[in-house]
Design goal:
The protein is 76% helix and 0% strand. The protein is mainly α. It comes from Malurus elegans.
């Protein structure tokens, strides 16, 4: 991954959200800007929003499950794990709120959510997609699958 380009995009897409949410917003804006050129981008935009919402829900469920497992085993790092679980839950709720706001936005209002039309071009959008895909659990464990 080209971390320099990711950092440049994040700098251009200033906002109070976390890094992943900023990249998601930039990608959604790019897809929205180009829907007139390619109608399939409307589907892509909806797919990404649904997939990110699902991923956030799964992350929350895993955090709750790991917290329940820790409660039953009473590990020595219990306080640290609960704090981490709380952080995961807070971040997940923040992302869900962001995605809900995207879902509730009517197509005619997409232009009000745009950051800057010059922020992301095709190459940057491809880089964002690759970067966000690399953050998914399957991509992170792909070497393990190949080894097995």
């Amino acid at each position: 991954m080209d971390q320099g380009s990711i950092a440049r995009i994040l700098k251009q897409v200033s906002g109070g959200e976390d890094e992943i949410q900023q990249l998601q917003k930039a990608l959604l804006d790019y897809l929205d800007e180009n829907t007139e050129i390619d109608a399939s981008l409307v589907f892509s935009r909806k797919f990404y929003v649904a997939q990110w919402f699902r991923d956030t829900t799964m992350e929350t469920e895993k955090a709750i499950k790991s917290q329940k497992d820790e409660d039953s085993s009473e590990g020595t790092h219990h306080a640290k794990d609960v704090e981490t679980t709380g952080q995961i839950m807070h971040r997940a709720e923040s992302r869900k709120t962001f995605l809900r706001s995207i879902i509730k936005t009517a197509p005619s209002q997409f232009s009000t959510l745009k950051i800057n039309s010059d922020t992301v071009d095709y190459e940057d959008a491809c880089l964002i997609v690759r970067y966000l895909a690399s953050m998914r659990p399957f991509a992170q464990s792909f070497d393990i699958y190949l080894t097995q």
